[in-house]
Amino acid sequence: MTVVQTPNAPAAVGPYSQAIISGGFVFTSGQLPLDPASGALVSRSIRMQTEQAIANLRAVLEASGSSLDRVFKTTCYLTNLSDFAAFNEVYASYFPHAPARSCVEVSALPRGAAVEIEAVALLSQ
Q: Considering 20, 55, 103, 122, which one is annotated as catalytic?
């Protein structure tokens, strides 16, 4: 098991790793729409938050030796399912290969975020 840490994604806001590599897979922690340098929430816009969460996810995957196109499962958390259509438009532009996905509404996310995305991916060969 290998712990992944990159300065290109926000530091963990608790006692966990950005990702773990094990058995040829990368298991990411949920990525929030935080600016990696400042740790601040990027915007209130669901579209901009989704863009940033995916940018952070990409950074963690690349630091792990994987990429967005190697993702085969995501779990997505939204604080308001009425944002689902806008979230989906942005999400689909990054995941045209349509990995398996769960998407649920939650009552709150850390730092006031509206979205959080975690993924499981294959390591690059």
A: 103
